[in-house]
Design goal:
Order of helices and strands: HHEHEEHEEHEHEHHEHEHHEEEEH
Number of helices: 12
Helix content: 25-40%
Number of strands: 13
Radius of gyration: 19 Å
Distance between the termini: 23 Å
């Protein structure tokens, strides 16, 4: 995979973000997600690759498109694994809350972890704390290690955690260590990426249980940024424990970053749907639409922040068909 697919990927996330943003605050999660999925699938079909969706909508969302195992791209080389989350934070978009993003990642074929267990326990840090974390250690010890690597005190750190009842003990442990906490209602891909960009986000670490698909997407970003991450499968019941066993995994095993995403040439792209701390949301300005994106490549370690202006009348003249919402077709 010697071509830089970054610009092609960010076009995919831009289109999905614009489609989903039409449903911002309209309290219709299914419509917002459906618009993003349809746009992303259509745009991916034009990308010069032979892709297989390894992380997608899948059984969790009963989606007819971008399901696990679906082939995407135009069929040309390179052969890649594809991870998608057309909306990370569907509820955020539906309710008009900050932090919803559209995201997609690519890696060489058969290098992304695939599991049907819905959730994972996660620990994510930035480049300065790479190699010092251990998910098997107590929370306080991990925070002390991270603080030492960052050259700061534990009290200076900020940990992002999903606001869920399952995290009551985790939050007690973090607060007992004297560390600051930022609670988020949804969107732990964005939370994980922000944890690896502390100079931009003010967040130093992500802890807690979130979606397994989102864990793999976050791992792709970590490989590009140079951050670190560890995860452990988190079955909710005996049925999911049976699934884990059938897949040949041990629920006690701590997955390293390289086990989650083992490629050497990885791409990650995300575009803001609603305003967030990492990315601005979509702006509809009549004949113009403005988007804010980040795109990364592990091969070069490059992280690009992109503000784009999309000229809708010109796109309509050059491309068809177009959605009735005004969202442009592929190649925007």
């Amino acid at each position: 995979m010697d071509r830089n697919l970054a610009l092609e990927l960010v076009r995919v996330t831009e289109g999905a973000a614009m489609a989903a943003a039409r449903w911002m605050g309209r309290d219709d999660k299914e419509a917002a997600d459906g618009a993003a999925v349809e746009s992303m699938r259509r745009s991916l079909s034009f990308v010069d690759m032979a892709g297989i969706v390894k992380i997608g909508e899948g059984e969790k969302d009963q989606a007819p498109m971008l399901y696990i195992g679906e082939t995407v791209g135009n069929g040309n080389r390179p052969e890649v694994d594809v991870a998608v989350d057309p909306i990370d934070g569907t509820r955020l978009v539906a309710r008009g809350l900050p932090g919803g993003i559209a995201t997609v990642a690519l890696a060489e074929r058969d290098t992304l972890l695939q599991t049907h267990c819905a959730y994972m326990e996660k620990l994510v840090v930035g480049p300065r704390a790479r190699g010092v974390i251990d998910l098997r250690l107590p929370v306080r010890e991990n925070l002390e290690r991270i603080a030492a690597a960052e050259g700061r005190s534990v009290e200076d750190l900020t940990v992002v955690v999903l606001d869920r009842p399952r995290h009551e003990q985790l939050l007690r442990d973090i607060r007992a260590a004297g560390t600051r906490v930022k609670l988020i209602t949804d969107g732990d891909v964005a939370g994980g990426v922000m944890a690896a960009l502390p100079d931009r986000s003010g967040i130093d670490c992500l802890m807690g249980v979130g979606g397994a698909p989102e864990a793999v997407l976050t791992a792709c970003a970590m490989r590009c940024i140079g951050g670190d991450m560890q995860c452990r499968l988190w079955p909710r019941d005996d049925a999911e424990r049976a699934v884990i066993a059938a897949e040949g995994f041990d629920e006690r095993h701590v997955f390293s970053l390289e086990e989650l995403c083992g490629g050497h040439n990885i791409f990650f792209a995300a575009t803001g749907i609603t305003d967030g701390e990492m990315l601005a949301g979509v702006r509809f300005l009549g004949d113009e639409v403005r988007t804010s994106s980040v795109v990364m490549r592990s091969y070069s370690g490059t992280v690009r922040w992109m503000d784009s202006v999309h000229n809708l009348p010109q796109l309509r003249r050059r491309q068809s068909p177009f959605r009735s919402t005004g969202e442009p077709g592929p190649g925007a």
